[in-house]
Write a structure and sequence with these properties.
Length: 436
């Protein structure tokens, strides 16, 4: 379960394209921040993705990935050319196929091989045609689905929604959000050549004039229970309301938002499938394991990363794809895991009500984040590498110090998980499995 958004330059305050995504997955699944540099590959080289091996490209680009720890692909990320992509689970009537490419594999492949959103759209659909999509996407339990994608570059964006080998694509005009549901209806810009013919053959519609992609291809029951209607409405409504004035902070606020029907109830005392900042603990649903915002534009894209779960208690830090050490290399997966685990321990301590001064911690985190936002704003078009490094150094060190101090102080405190019996049992079991 996830939510992904984009606002093109005609809808933002600074004229940049702003992309944002929460990765909602099983709560014990680490989401690693990795940087993979540009590489050249010999002719005939093969590439092992999560489940299958495919032909490698002769050259792959410098990429920033936020990826589940156990798979090859990524939930979201960007590359050196200002291309950013995120994927969503969608639930459709087309039968699941055998192990093939995962949606996360397709995200990483497009980031490594493409420079523009249109190039990425064509590559993903070509790979779908050649290799298909399929395989378990779950970490500690089996979970299979098809995928939708939000694909953005510094000038444009596409929504691509799939159902097995079939797909439809819509070019974004100003703002767009996708959640765990098909959203393209009667109007689309590109589609699989047999899309409508297949729906008519299956008797999902009577004729071409009757065709509606989301209505025909959605598994409506599973989609309904995914909680996507609430989350999609939260994202879309806020984007429409602030169209023309959307900022990085707007996206951060949306990623941290909770289902309004829960009122003032603490999000740490119940699950919230309908929240963009998703909290696990129910019969269905996942937990937000990482968050990402990107401001795409010349002279250099600015990426904002939490490096941990639960954005309502996390701090976004600025990152530029310069020559720096703040995000981990592929050979540093253990360090990347340790980084995520420390922030996850903070989340579990909050759940257990061991962080007695949580309000003070959140206030201090908000001050650090605002300091970074102001520093980036003050740069203007100046992108001096030493100044960028200084901003990153301060932001990443200050956040780490605050998180570590709060965790160390809170570990010995007494506390207990609140909420329903099921909620308490769920999180007790998950925390024991994680070794905390």
């Amino acid at each position: 379960m996830c939510d992904t958004m984009v606002a093109l330059g005609n809808a933002t305050a600074n004229g940049n394209v702003i992309f944002a995504k929460n990765s909602d997955r099983q709560p014990n699944e680490p989401l690693l921040m990795l940087r993979v540099p540009r590489q050249r590959h010999s002719k005939g080289t093969q590439l092992k993705c999560t489940y299958i091996t495919i032909d490698q490209a002769r050259e792959t680009y410098d990429v920033l990935l936020l990826k589940p720890s156990w798979m090859w692909g990524a939930e979201m990320g960007a590359n050196e050319y200002g291309l950013a992509i995120g994927n969503e689970a969608v639930f459709t009537k087309v039968k699941q196929g055998p192990k093939a490419l995962l949606g996360m594999d397709l995200v990483r492949l497009a980031l490594e091989r493409c420079k523009t959103s249109t190039d990425a759209l064509h590559l993903i659909t070509e790979l779908l045609e050649k290799y298909g999509q399929g395989g378990n996407c779950g970490y500690q339990k089996n979970f299979v689905y098809h995928n939708s994608f939000l694909i953005a570059d510094r000038n444009s964006a596409w929504v691509l929604e799939t159902s097995g080998p079939y797909w439809a694509a819509e070019k974004v005009k100003d703002v767009r959000a996708i959640s765990n549901r098909l959203t393209i209806g009667k109007e689309f810009d590109l589609a699989h050549p047999d899309l409508i013919k297949h729906a008519i053959a299956k008797r999902w519609c009577r004729s071409e004039s009757d065709f509606d992609f989301a209505r025909c291809y959605s598994n409506h029951l599973v989609t309904r229970f995914s909680g996507s209607a609430s989350r999609h409405a939260i994202c879309s409504t806020r984007l429409e309301q602030e169209k023309g004035q959307i900022t990085v902070e707007t996206m951060m606020q949306i990623l941290r938002s909770h289902d309004p029907k829960h009122g003032t109830m603490r999000p740490f005392d119940r699950h919230s499938l309908g929240s963009v900042c998703m909290h696990g603990g129910g019969l269905v649903g996942d937990h937000t394991t990482g968050s990402y915002v990107a401001s795409l534009g010349e002279p250099l894209d600015t990426h904002w990363l939490t490096g941990g779960s639960t954005p309502c208690i996390s701090i976004f830090k600025p990152y530029w794809m310069t020559d720096n050490h703040f995000v981990f290399g592929e050979e540093q997966e253990q360090e990347a895991l340790d980084y995520w685990m420390l922030r996850e321990e903070l989340h579990r301590l909050v759940l257990q009500n061991k962080v007695f001064k949580l309000k003070k911690h959140l206030e201090e985190g908000a001050v650090l984040e605002k300091k970074s936002l102001d520093a980036v704003e003050s740069l203007g078009d100046n992108r001096n590498p030493s100044e960028l490094d200084a901003i990153m150094e301060g932001a990443w060190q200050d956040e780490h110090k605050l998180v570590r101090t709060t965790v160390v102080r809170s570990r010995p405190n007494a506390g207990e998980i609140k909420g329903s019996l099921r909620f308490r049992r769920y999180w007790k079991k998950q925390t024991e499995k994680l070794g905390l």
